[in-house]
Amino acid sequence: MQKKDIDKFISALKTAYPEAGCSLDFNTPFQLVTAVALSAQCTDERVNKVTPKLFERCKTIEDFANIDISELEEIIRSCGFYKNKAKNIKLSAKQVLENFNGEVPSKMDDLTTLAGIGRKSANVIRLEVFNLATGVAVDTHVKRISNLIGLSSEKDPLKIEQDLIKFFPKKYLKDINHLLIWHGRNCCVARKPHCTTCPVKQFCKNALTKSL
Ligand code: SF4
């Protein structure tokens, strides 16, 4: 894909996925910190089944910091890796209270000091809570699609993110975050992507190679 194709590429994906957006349910910044932490190695759908009970039990960041670890583990158990996730949720709540006056920080460098929050999660939080689209959350879908389309030949998420930031104009970074994930869930799925019906196959290196 070339830079001149970017507008058409975005437009085709927007037409295919008009509802593309964050699929984790949350009402407060710290609820998203929690939901993002729970979503590691777990589907957003599963997380959204677990968080209503969790958010009902923990209404404030103090509640997250003070909940008994075994009670928290039990609530989030079905999300997998629940012991580690429970530990991180409690610790990140304490960190927000002690280091950031109880407010989830917006800076990348601050967010990544929170337990269980890496660059990918921090990008999601910055975008969805603070409307700051300065990076791309490179998850398994974004990584795969970027390689297949030819947007990046890198394997390391950080390098892929840098390639995407360099290639796409800043005004499209918010869209890119949502659209690539939705495309990965709905069409460019792992192992058997639906290339013949793909809305962006004309821009895809993989499709061109196969002469689709
Ligand atoms: S053409 Fe195939 S490999 Fe390329 S983006 Fe579409 S589904 Fe993915």
Question: Could you explain the architecture of this structure?
Answer:
With 212 residues, this protein is an all-alpha fold. It folds into 2 domains: 3-20 and 136-209, Helix-hairpin-Helix base-excision DNA repair enzymes (C-terminal) (Endonuclease Iii, domain 2, Orthogonal Bundle), CATH 1.10.1670.10; 29-130, Endonuclease III, domain 1 (Orthogonal Bundle), CATH 1.10.340.30. It is 58% helix and 0% strand. It has helices spanning 6-16, 29-38, 44-57, 61-66, 69-76, 82-99, 108-111, 119-130, 140-149, 157-167, 173-186, 205-209. Helix 1 (6-16) crosses helix 11 and helix 2 runs antiparallel to helix 6. The protein is elongated and about 55 Å long. The model has no long low-confidence stretch (mean pLDDT 96). Iron/sulfur cluster (SF4) binds at residues 145, 148-149, 187-188, 193-195, 198, 200-201, 204, 206-207.
The total number of structural domains is 2
* Termini separation: 15 Å
What value does the Rg take, in angstroms?
18 Å
State the order of secondary-structure elements, H for helix, E for strand.
HHHHHHHHHHHH
What is bound: which ligands? iron/sulfur cluster
The CATH superfamily title of the largest domain: Hypothetical protein, domain 2
Shape: elongated
> What is the CATH topology descriptor of the largest domain?
Endonuclease III, domain 1
**Mean pLDDT across every amino acid position:** 96
> What's the number of extended β-strand segments?
0
Uncertain regions spanning at least 5 consecutive residues: none
Seen as an oligomer or otherwise, the chain set is single chain
By CATH, the architecture of the largest domain is named: Orthogonal Bundle
Largest sheet report? none
CATH class of the largest domain: Mainly Alpha
Structural class: mainly alpha
Number of helices: 12
**Share in helix:** 55-70%
Beta content comes to under 5%
